[in-house]
Write a structure and sequence with these properties.
By secondary structure, this protein is of the alpha+beta class. It has a domain of 112 residues: Lipoxygenase-1. The chain has 19 helices and 16 strands. The strands form four sheets. Strands 2, 3, 4, 6 and 9 form a five-stranded antiparallel β-sheet that branches. It has a five-stranded antiparallel β-sheet with strand order 10-11-14-15-16. Strands 5-1-7-8 form a four-stranded antiparallel β-sheet, with no helix packed on it. A hairpin with a 2-residue loop joins strand 2 and strand 3. It is elongated and about 95 Å long.
Length: 675
C-alpha cells in the first residue's frame, strides 16, 4: 500500500546557505526505507537561502519515521545549510532539526527530532543511526595531544589534515570577520595618525585617536578615584574585589599614612573591623616572566605588570574609593602609595595596578575561565551525544562558534608571534601569558565559576557589606533563571538518578570529558551518577559561556581603548621611591604608539556583536528550535519570563545610575562565546 508524505524543508537564511546542487531524500522508518526521491520543482529555484520548500512524494508505508537521508550532488555552489525538515502523512508528523551543512557530493542522515535517552530507543535502525553519527563526529572532532595542552584544559585539534568542520566556521561580525574588525580599526587609526604629534605622549595624544572612532566614556573620568573603584564592581574584570578584616602580609600601612582618607576619628583597625575595607590582589603575577627581548640593534625592550594590590574603602557616602596601592610584595622594596602622595605618584600607582589587572584579566578571567574551560564541554558533547539526545539539544545553541573563536584566539593572539607578543606585558619570548594561564588553571575548579559561592568566598554577597555591586546584582538572578531552566529540561527526561546511570551516551560523555578535557578533580563530582550534579555542571557551563563571558568581554573597548585607563603593559619598572615622578615619567611608562594601536583595535574587535548574534532573551525567540516535546515550551517560556523581569530591573536601576551597567541585560548577553 502506498502512502503520501509531505516534506517541508527550511534552508538557513544565512548568506551562502542555499545550493544549486541536486537534493534527494530517502525516508527511513521502522518498516523500512523509501527509494530515493529527487526534490525538484519545475521552473523553481529550490533551496535558496532563507527559503521554505514543500515537496510531496509517494512510497510504501514506512511506519514511524526515524531519519531522513539527504544526498547533495551535481552543484557548483553545492554546500547546503539545512535548518530543519518536517514530514507529515495524514494526522502523523515528524520533526527533523539539523542546523548544519550538508556538503556538496555528500550524504547526511538527519535523525528524527524527538529527544530520547539511549536506553529508551527501541528500534535497532535508530540505534545504528545514533552510533554512526557519533563515529563520524569523533573523526571530525579530535582532541589535541595532551602535550599540546599541558597545564591547560583539553582542546580541539585542528590541522591541515583535519580542518575546522564547516559547521563550526566563524561568521562575520557587524563590520566583517573577527580579523577584519582588527584590520579596519588599525587602518582607520593609522590613516589619521598624522594629526598626532610626532613625539608620542600617550597621556595626551591617545584622545586624538577617537576623532574618527567612538570615544570610550571613561576618557572623561579615568583619573577620578571613585571611577577607579567603580571599575572594580562593574568594569571588565569585576571578579576580584574581596572583603578583608586584616591587612595582608607585607603591606606596611599605618594610620598616619591614611590621614584624612578615613571617616573622622576612625582608625584603620576600626575600618577593617567594621568591614569597610576591600582588596584587589593580583598576586598571581608574582614570578610570571615579563616581556624581555633584545632587538637586532642590541636594544633591549622590557615590559612590566607587577603583582600589585590595592585597598578600597567604603566611605561615609557608601561609595568605594582607593586608599592604598602597593606595586609588589616586598615591604622593603615596594612602597605603599596613597592619595596623600604626589599627584604623579598616585596616578602612576593606579595605572600600574590597572596594568596588572589587565594582564590577569586577559589570560585568567577571560581566556582561561570562560573560553578554554567551555571548550572541553563542546568537544565531549559533539563526540558523544547524537542529535536526539536531550543534553545535546540543550547545549548545542550555546556552543555556536566557540571552537572557531578559540582557534582564532590561539593563532592570532596567544601563539608565538601573535598579537599579544606585540603589546602585553606578559607576552614575548618568556611566554609569560601562557604560564599565567597555566597558573590560573592550576588554582581553578569549575565551582569557582558559580557566582553565589564565589561572592560568599570573597565576602561580598551581602549588599549590606558592599551596597553597590551591579555585577553581583545582575549575575545572581541570571544564574537562578539558568539553573531552573537547565534543571527543568533535565528533569523532563531523567526521572531518577538511575536514568542517568543507565544513559550510556552520557556516561561516555563524562569519561571523554574527564580523560581528555577536564580532570575529575576540577569538577564537582568524580562520577556522574546524580541528576543534581549534572544539572549543576551544565548550569555552570551555560552561565560561563553566556553571562560570565559577557561580563568579562563586552566592556573591553570601554575599559582598554583609552589606554591610560588600563594599559596592558608598562615600559618602565614600578617606582621604588616616592616623590620623584613627573609628567614626563608617566608618559614614558605607558604603551608606545604602536602598542596603543593594537590595544584599541583588539578591544574594539573583542567587544563586537555579530550580525547573527543570538541573545539569551532574543526578540522573536531563538532561531534554532531543537525541542518540540510537550512541556518543554513551558519550561522555555518560564525561563524567558524570568529574563524579562530581570531586564526590567536592570533598566530601572540604570535609569538612576550615573554610569549604567548594561552588559548583563538579558537582551545583550549572547547565548555563548562567539567572540
Amino acid at each position: 500500500m502506498s502512502v503520501e508524505y509531505k516534506i517541508t524543508i527550511r534552508t538557513s537564511a544565512r548568506f551562502g546557505s542555499g545550493t544549486d546542487g541536486e537534493i534527494s531524500v530517502v525516508l527511513v522508518g521502522t518498516h523500512g526505507e523509501s527509494e530515493p526521491h529527487t526534490l525538484d520543482k519545475r521552473f523553481h529555484n529550490d533551496f535558496e537561502a532563507g527559503a521554505e520548500g514543500v515537496y510531496e512524494l509517494e512510497t510504501r508505508e514506512l511506519g514511524e519515521l526515524l531519519l531522513l537521508r539527504f544526498s547533495n550532488s551535481k552543484g557548483l555552489a553545492g554546500d547546503w545549510l539545512l535548518d530543519s525538515a518536517e514530514v507529515t502523512s495524514g494526522e502523523r508528523s515528524w520533526y527533523f532539526p539539523y542546523f548544519r551543512w550538508i556538503l556538496s557530493n555528500s550524504t547526511a542522515e538527519v535523525l528524527a527530532g524527538t529527544a530520547r535517552l539511549p536506553q529508551h530507543v527501541r528500534h535497532e535502525r535508530e540505534v545504528l543511526a545514533r552510533r554512526a553519527q557519533l563515529e563520524r563526529r569523533r573523526q571530525m572532532y579530535a582532541w589535541r595531544p595532551a602535550e599540546a595542552t599541558a597545564g591547560l584544559p583539553g582542546a580541539f585539534d585542528i590541522s591541515e589534515e583535519r580542518p575546522l568542520p564547516k559547521d563550526e566556521l566563524y561568521r562575520g561580525l557587524g563590520d566583517g570577520s573577527y580579523a577584519v574588525v582588527i584590520a579596519k580599526t588599525i587602518t582607520t587609526l593609522k590613516l589619521h595618525m598624522p594629526v598626532l604629534t610626532s613625539a608620542w605622549n600617550g597621556l595626551v595624544d591617545t584622545l586624538d585617536l577617537f576623532k574618527h572612532l567612538e570615544a570610550p566614556q571613561v576618557t572623561q573620568r579615568w583619573q577620578d578615584d571613585y571611577e577607579f573603584a567603580r571599575q572594580a564592581v562593574q568594569g571588565v574584570n569585576p571578579v576580584h574585589i574581596q572583603l578583608i578584616t586584616a591587612l595582608p602580609d607585607g603591606l606596611p600601612l599605618a594610620d598616619g599614612d591614611l590621614r584624612g582618607l578615613l571617616s573622622p576619628g576612625s582608625s584603620l583597625a576600626q575600618a577593617l573591623a567594621a568591614k569597610r575595607v576591600f582588596l584587589l590582589d593580583f598576586e598571581i603575577l608574582d614570578g610570571i616572566p615579563m616581556f624581555r627581548k633584545v632587538n637586532e640593534d642590541g636594544v633591549e625592550e622590557r615590559r612590566w605588570a607587577p603583582s600589585a594590590r590595592c585597598l578600597l574603602y567604603l566611605d561615609d557616602t557608601r561609595q568605594l574609593r582607593p586608599i592604598a596601592i602597593q606595586l609588589g610584595r616586598d615591604p622593603e622594596q615596594d612602597p605603599v602609595f596613597t592619595p596623600n602622595d604626589t599627584a604623579h605618584d598616585w596616578l602612576a600607582a593606579k595605572i600600574y595596578l590597572r596594568c596588572s589587572e589587565g594582564n590577569t584579566h586577559q589570560m585568567v578571567t577571560h581566556a582561561l575561565r570562560t573560553h578554554f574551560v567551555v571548550e572541553p564541554f563542546v568537544m565531549a558533547t559533539m563526540r558523544n551525544l547524537p542529535d536526539p539526545h536531550p543534553v545535546y539539544k540543550l547545549l548545542r545553541r550555546h556552543f555556536r562558534y566557540t571552537l572557531a573563536i578559540n582557534d582564532g584566539a590561539r593563532k592570532g593572539l596567544l601563539d608565538e608571534g601573535g598579537v599579544f607578543d606585540d603589546f602585553i606585558a606578559t607576552g614575548g619570548p618568556g611566554k609569560g601569558h601562557i604560564k599565567l594561564g597555566q597558573k590560573g588553571y592550576l588554582r581553578w575548579k569549575l565551582t569557582d565559576n558559580k557566582p553565589r559561592p564565589d561572592f560568599e568566598r570573597r565576602g561580598v554577597l551581602d549588599p549590606e557589606i558592599l551596597p553597590y555591586y551591579p555585577y553581583r546584582d545582575d549575575a545572581l538572578p541570571l544564574w537562578d533563571a539558568l539553573e531552573e531552566y537547565v534543571g527543568g529540561v533535565l528533569g523532563h527526561f531523567y526521572k531518577s538518578d538511575a536514568d542517568l546511570v543507565g544513559d550510556t551516551e552520557m556516561q561516555a560523555w563524562w569519561a571523554d570529558l574527564t580523560e581528555r578535557g577536564l580532570p575529575a578533580d576540577k569538577l564537582p563530582c568524580t562520577r556522574l551518577t546524580r541528576v543534581a550534579d549534572l544539572a549543576d555542571i551544565l548550569s555552570t557551563v551555560l552561565f560561563t559561556g553566556s553571562v560570565q563571558h559577557a561580563a568579562v568581554n563586552y566592556l573591553q573597548y570601554e575599559h582598554y581603548a583609552f589606554v591610560p585607563n588600563a594599559p596592558l603593559c608598562m615600559r618602565r619598572e614600578p617606582p621604588r621611591k616616592k616623590g620623584v615622578l613627573g609628567p614626563d615619567d608617566l608618559a614614558g611608562m605607558i604603551p608606545t604608539r604602536s602598542q596603543t594601536l593594537w590595544q584599541v583595535a583588539i578591544g574594539r574587535a573583542l567587544a563586537s556583536f555579530g550580525e547573527d548574534e543570538e541573545f539569551l532573551l532574543h526578540e522573536g525567540g531563538w532561531r534554532e528550535d531543537y525541542f518540540k516535546e510537550p512541556g518543554l515550551a513551558e519550561i522555555h517560556e518560564r525561563f524567558h519570563d524570568r529574563l524579562r523581569v530581570q531586564l526590567a530591573a536592570v533598566k530601572a536601576r540604570n535609569a538612576k545610575s550615573d554610569v549604567p551597567y548594561t552588559v548583563l541585560q538579558p537582551d545583550k548577553i549572547p547565548c555563548g562565546i562567539t567572540v
